[in-house]
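dude i think i finally got it to work??
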Amino acid sequence: MEKNPKICSVCSKEGSEFRCACKGVYYCGPACQKAGWKAHKPNCGARLAKKIESKETTGERETALDHSKMGKIHSQHGRFGDALKSYEEARQIFITVHGKYHEDVGTMYNNIGHTYQEMGRYNEALSMHNEGLEIRRRVFGEKHPDVAGSLSNIGNVHHALGDPRKTLEYLTQALEIETETLGRENLQIMKTLQNIACVHKGQGALGKALKMQEEAMGIFRRIGTDEGDLAPILVQLGDIYFEQEKQDEAMASFVESLAIFRRVNGEKHTSVADSLDKIAGVHAAREELDEALKLQKKAMKIRQRALPHEHVSVASSLQSIAHIYSKQGKHREALPMFEEALGIYKRTVGADHPDLAGFYQDRASCLLLAGDRKGSLDNFRESLRIDVLHGVSGVYSGEVRMAIRVLESSGLR
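look at this
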């Protein structure tokens, strides 16, 4: 497993320990820091914080833009609470300068919505994105790329809330507007295709998902320049390969995404945790449980530091670690972690979220191995109930149905 290389942002030397005061970039030494200052200066959080504090600006709008830049820097480094404060400050200044119905204000509602989503506060995210959509429609009219962007944002929150119907409804509207206003060869369309593919994958339509991800990858290969746009495509391609039991291809995609996220976002960002989580999943499928556990614990540490405890990503880490403990026969360690994860899931996304089907399946398997056959049956039934509720079918639902039949045939009810 590759360690964080700490690459110098100027000469690309690995193992660089010298870091800017903003902790956003590494250098191999003072000489490279001096050489790289001109390029880094506009995005240096330490410099920007001093500028805001000393009010070294030429007007209120510039102050708002500085707060917005500060919010972006905080978000890139996983400091979502600080990002939220910066974006809210910028929004208030923009409203004072322009009034509510202005594109700058719409952008801040968009940024605040994204931040709430990162924090797992989905209802607040939905409220912000709906406000942003209203503003953008008033400012730009119905057929505009920014309106499509707001529709995509709303669709993505519905996806997080476990509503694939509404997700596809909003994403399809967004794609139609983007295609009409931007043409098909566009990075915004690339991202919308990725989001739609993710919904198809969740519904088990792997062929549709792969086709859309490949179209997104083709757009990036032809016109993309920012490798930060490539990493999410690699993650989602890896997910599809994993579902298709192509473990080598999945691992290659996940490892490449991890390297990119580390270069772009730094070691402590939640995107790094996400890729570590994916790589751990491949190790677990290969029965390399010690390596999987080590990576899952590292991912959870990043998430616990960057996110509120009541966040679905923290619950996901708890579930993943519990699953590995279960496979190792450590049921006493696993079951309390499953309970903690379930509490977070129910409080953040509700008891019927589609991701909980996989959770109940994991916990059912653990209970079965621990000798609690009745508890296992109850959890398999709950997993199936959620799949049926959301119209999900496929290999995993079939396995759950088989497990239920076997347990019921032994006389359990």
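The mean pLDDT is 89.
im so relieved honestly
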